[in-house]
Amino acid sequence: MKENAGSANQHTTVLPFILIEMRTTHYHYPNRKAGQAAVSIFSTGYILWICWIHHVTGMWVYPLLDHLTSFLKIVVFVASLVAINVFYVVGEILNSFIWDKSRYVEEKVDAKNKTD
């Protein structure tokens, strides 16, 4: 049980750094369809990799999957694809909220003036 608690702490420890990075770095997102397609392809590859590891070793990298029926595994995998796409859109919205166009234009003009 302690391993799981430690793992959860390690995963949430990066949150402050993600928020700092979001505040200090403006990202140029591709159009939404292309971005979600890329995230979906990556996620599908990760899910396939998890299944491949189970096929080769007979063990699931996430022990919870060992207790689920095949149908529930599919539900979990589809839910994870949906969740990652929701997180992508939320990140895009937060990025545009934090970096409104007027502020971004001002910084772009300042950067251009520095190079001239």
UniProtKB/TrEMBL annotation:
Lineage: superkingdom: Eukaryota
Bilayer-spanning residue ranges: 37-62, 74-94
Keyword Transmembrane helix: yes
Catalyses which reaction(s): 12-(9Z-hexadecenoyloxy)-octadecanoate + H2O = 12-hydroxyoctadecanoate + (9Z)-hexadecenoate + H(+); 9-(9Z-octadecenoyloxy)-octadecanoate + H2O = 9-hydroxy-octadecanoate + (9Z)-octadecenoate + H(+); 9-hexadecanoyloxy-octadecanoate + H2O = 9-hydroxy-octadecanoate + hexadecanoate + H(+); 9-octadecanoyloxy-octadecanoate + H2O = 9-hydroxy-octadecanoate + octadecanoate + H(+)
One Pfam match: Far-17a_AIG1
Cellular compartments per GO CC: endomembrane system; membrane
Topology in membrane: Multi-pass membrane protein
Entry's localization field: Endomembrane system
Keyword Cell inner membrane: no
Keywords, ordered alphabetically: Membrane, Transmembrane, Transmembrane helix
InterPro entries: ADTRP_AIG1
PANTHER family the UniProt entry points to: ANDROGEN-INDUCED GENE 1 PROTEIN (PTHR10989:SF11), ANDROGEN-INDUCED PROTEIN 1-RELATED (PTHR10989)
Family: Belongs to the AIG1 family.
Name assigned to this protein: Androgen-induced gene 1 protein
Taxonomic lineage of the native organism: Eukaryota, Metazoa, Chordata, Craniata, Vertebrata
